[in-house]
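Researcher: Please translate sequence to structure tokens.
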Amino acid sequence: MRTTDPRPGAAGEIRRIRGGPAAGSRTVGAGQARGGTWGAGMKIGIIGSGHIGGTLTRRLSALGHDVTVANSRGPQTLAELAQETGATAGTVEQAAQGSDVVVVAVPLKAVPELPAEAFAGTVVVDADNYYPERDGNIPELQDRSVSSSRWTADHLQGARVVKTFNTIMAQHLMEYGRPAGQAGRIALPVAGDDAEAKRMVMELVDALGFDPVDGGSLDESWRQQPGTPVYGADLDADGVRQGLAQARP
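Model: Translation complete:
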């Protein structure tokens, strides 16, 4: 489940936004974003320890959340990340069990291998993108008859799936969080069918230092997939709204 793919939703390149903070600059910390219900103290599972999964393990642990991280290779391969962050290394089932939110950040082709029953009733953040050259030929995604997040939700029946973190590069997710109201704050689209789950995830996005923008339903989340105006663009909230509206199938 680990990936070295350098694209948004998979890894972290070094492309920098205009006017953005330099690499290594201080990111928004606990208490600097708007104080939402889910600002700190949540139990969060992260499936995948690659660029996005590893970054979210670092960021969410630093915000004071109880994080358990898992990958396909077993907890023993996560000792270094756990020691660095204070997160717990576990199995996929342990990461999902009792969590308020579980982030799935694995290559899309690995989603059918996940134990769907472990995610039933849980808010699942889909941070994945479909890349045919990596994930293979998935006909319904190739012809765009379904969005990749709908495809994921169909495999994780019973989960409350919300799509986000798939449009930003991992290095920017790590370094470019800013306090609410600060000029140049990057916005992230958040799509889902469950209004409460979406609200929870939007507050988590805000706590990480990014403006959450409602991206509509899971069926509308194609508007934030690769090749759309918002993908990898590091737009502000108005720019994301405009980009979502301008997206074409």
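Researcher: Any highlights?
Model: The chain is about 30% helix and 15% strand.
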